[in-house]
Amino acid sequence: MDIIFGRNKKEQPEPVRAKVTGKIPAWLQGTLLRNGPGMHTVGETRYNHWFDGLALLHSFTIRDGEVYYRSKYLRSDTYKANIEANRIVVSEFGTMAYPDPCKNIFSKAFSYLSHTLPDFTDNCLINIMKCGEDFFATTETNYIRRINPQTLETLEKVDYHKYVAVNLATSHPHYDAAGNVLNMGTSIMDKRKTRYVMFKIPATVPEGRSPLKHAEVFCSVASRSLLSPSYYHSFGVTENCIIFLEQPFKLDILKMLTAYFRGVSWASCMTFHKEDKTYIHIVDQRTRKPLPIKFYTDPMVVFHHVNAYEEDGCLLFDVIAYEDSSLYQLFYLANLNQDFEENSRLTSIPTLKRFAVPLHVDKNADVGSNLIKVASTTARALKEKDDQVYCQPEVLYEGLELPRINYAHNGRPYRYVFAAEVQWSPIPTKILKYDVLTKASLKWGEEHCWPAEPLFVPMPGAKDEDDGIILSAIVSTDPQKPPFLLILDAKTFTELARASVDVEMHLDLHGLFIPDTDWDARKQVPSREERDQASNGPGAPQT
Asked: Are strands 30-39 and 54-63 parallel, antiparallel or unpaired?
């Protein structure tokens, strides 16, 4: 697996024309913009964890049946400092760095302790967020970086903390019908409290103003522990509710504050407490307050919410759940590259689970009774004493991750999950379409091919939920097969086309599709005259 995880990938800042086989639907016009780690070695130093690598943006611009590829490293402050020093000098979650080896370590450690928290990295390598007319590369710290989606140029650095009191924020925001951004983050020891903060960034603001300056905190939930808040990667929404899981996978703040001094990474300050519960917080968006009932389930770790919706007085939400936090350990490079099959075997299979929560609890219901009356799920909510409700999920499917849906159905009843299939390894080997109604599935896979997260793009005027196509960037470990953009019919899961590019493509994490209607994508690809000239140069289609 060294070809995927062990090598720094070269950027391709100028558009390269792909070789297209098959036929791309004429209506598919836009840009697939993706993000993920691309550089894990700087000089003679190396990151410990795959999620620590320097962010490499890449894009596929699809226009008139042709595809152009480009990639560029995010010029974050972290990237520039590392490249200038020719070694890793900025700490990431799994790698602690010491910027100045000549400086007394005790002096540096006490400098860290003089602040509430150390300054985090702006290596925004996880996702892409649309905010108003702007696009941002995101990570899980308080920093995001604005980017130019046409050129992949890195623009200004934005600190969430200047607008809302959060030290960490998710890379999986939601968007309402008006395009407003809904996100949440953790405010650590602010005014002697640690809280999970929900905030909204408006899509439209007065001309010349930044939407971030109009960010509004509309609700917060107190952490059950001042110094050990829950880790979370995403959350769920419906029209009226926000779903937040306070997991027993926790960050120890005291250990984190002394990590530099002790010479350990921040990741080592996270612990899964298998004896604890997972608490389900439901926030009513209308009242901006959490529901008073204490909902909980068994200990688990959830990185990705899939979807949620309300039905007959119940809130149903689907997540990908693990029994423990072992997934993070598998992505240490020592495990990925030394003995892939042995060291990177999943001990906890990611499982699609459906939970059901009653929005109104009958106080006269018998202890032990099931409060879920809807017929669409076998998930149960069992009433207990002291206003507690134990939620027992319905298991839908085992072995999938990186879920996406038709986002027009976000927060509403839906039917299809598009995801990557993972079985014995955390690295996807196939992509699949799962029907939550019939429990049937369709799959695409090819030998020596490693697919990224599948992304659904709806067909204009679509009537059915699965009227559209699936896009996935495929990394190949076959030297005779270059990487390619895969284009599937979302309804049948049959291949429509692939666009192969002779570049070093990296395995990415998340991203989005920008239709031509959202911006002037015509500027991103060469004119036909330039394309004809390129046919005799390095950007010519591969044969």
From this structure: antiparallel
Q: What's the pLDDT band for 305 if we cut at 50, 70, 90? A: very high
Going by C-alpha positions, the residue among 420, 526, 429 that lies closest to residue 471 is 420
Tell me, what amino acid is at 308?
Answer: A
Token pair of 282, please? Answer: 């439901």
Query: Looking at residue 328, what DSSP letter applies?
Result: H
% helix / strand / coil in the chain, to the nearest 5? 15, 40, 45
What span, in angstroms and rounded, lies between the C-alpha atoms of 282 and 280?
6
Closest CA to 473 of 50, 62, 23: 62
Percent of the chain with pLDDT over 90: 74
Distance CA 91, CA 100 (A): 12
Handedness of CA 344, 137, 187, 317 (dihedral sign): negative
8 Å CB contact between 468 and 457: yes
* Long-range contacts formed by 104-113: CB under 8 A, 24+ apart: 105/261, 106/261, 108/260, 109/258, 109/260, 109/261, 112/257, 112/260, 112/261, 113/257, 113/258, 113/261
CB 326 within 8 A of CB 301: no
Q: Would you say residue 115 has pLDDT above 90?
A: no
Rounded distance between C-alpha atoms, residue 134 and residue 147, angstroms: 8
Q: Are 233 and 172 in contact (CB under 8 A)?
A: yes
Mean pLDDT of 83-103: 83
What length does the chain have? 543
d(C-alpha 515, C-alpha 31), whole Å = 6
In this structure, the number of other CB atoms found within 10 A of the CB of residue 346 comes to 16
Residue with tokens 């016009």: 29
Give per-residue pLDDT as tens, 365-418: 999 999 999 999 999 999 998 889 999 999 999 999 999 999 999 999 999 999
Cβ atoms of 277 and 370 closer than 8 Å: no
Tokens 């939601």 correspond to what residue? Answer: 174
* 198: Cα separation from own chain's centroid: 17
Give residue limits of the domains in the chain: 2-534
- CB proximity list for 12: less than 8 A, separation 6 or greater: 58, 69, 70, 71, 72, 503
Helix (H, G, I), strand (E, B) or coil at 463: coil
Residue carrying the six token digits 């109604």: 437
What sign does the CA torsion over 534, 539, 542, 543 have?
positive
Q: Which two tokens stand for residue 43?
A: 């000089």
Using the structure block, give the residue that is written with the tokens 């692939």: 498
Place of tokens 């808040």: 229
Helix H, strand E, coil C: the string for 83-148 is HHHCCCCCCECCECCCCCCCCCHHHHHHHHHCCCCCCCCCCCCCEEEEECCEEEEECCECEEEEEC
Give the tokens for residue 131. 């905010």
Closest CA to 232 of 259, 252, 251, 215: 251
Exposure string over 127-149, b if 16+ CB within 10 A, otherwise e: bbbbbbebbbbbbbbbbbbbbeb
Separation CA 159–CA 143 (nearest Å) = 5
Contact 282, 241 (CB under 8 A): yes
Q: How many CB atoms lie within 10 A of CB 429?
A: 18
Say if CB 58 and CB 73 are below 8 A apart: no
